[in-house]
């Protein structure tokens, strides 16, 4: 048994040609912390993360190198946050592309190894073809749980 057993073969994806607006809308609509990003050929490029979207709305003084550790003294409104995000709305989603420290699995990764990787990474796993780099699915805790619980415990 391999990773393919748990894989969702039709994951929600973002394309490198999409905008921050399109990415944020998909993250919110699907209620995901991250979504895989693919190029025009379907090759996995990285992940769009909510961390980056949050980064875009925080004041620069907090996100720059050696920035502020607290913002308790800063006054801000929802409208301020919207304005900060709107500056990036039409920018390419690759601005928020996380490429480093992303663990991928392959369709033939052994089942228990896949579960251990999922446990350690604590995030959804992209399933990528070894030869082409194409994203062929994702594995989430929910995918694993659904497969394990598929047959009731009679």
Overview of the structural elements:
With 154 residues, this protein is α+β, with helices and mostly antiparallel strands. It has one domain: CBS-domain (Roll). The protein has helices at 20-30, 50-57, 60-63, 78-86, 111-121, 141-148, and strands at 14-15, 34-38, 44-49, 97-98, 125-128, 135-139. Strands 1-2-3-4 form a four-stranded mixed beta sheet. The relative contact order is 0.23. The mean pLDDT is 88.
Which descriptors would you attach to this protein?
154 residues; 6 helices; CBS-domain; alpha+beta; four-stranded mixed sheet
Mean pLDDT: 88
Helix-strand string: EHEEHHHEHEEH
CATH topology: CBS-domain
Largest sheet descriptor: 4 strands, mixed
Which structural class matches the secondary elements?
alpha+beta
CATH superfamily, by name, is CBS-domain
Please give the CATH architecture: Roll
Whole-number tally of structural domains:
1
Can you identify the CATH class?
Alpha Beta
Proportion of beta-strand residues: 15-25%
- List the total number of helices: 6
- How would the global form be characterised? elongated
Chain-wise SSE layout:
Elements: E1 14-15, H1 20-30, E2 34-38, E3 44-49, H2 50-57, H3 60-63, H4 78-86, E4 97-98, H5 111-121, E5 125-128, E6 135-139, H6 141-148
Parallel strand pairs: 1-2
Antiparallel strand pairs: 2-3, 3-4, 5-6
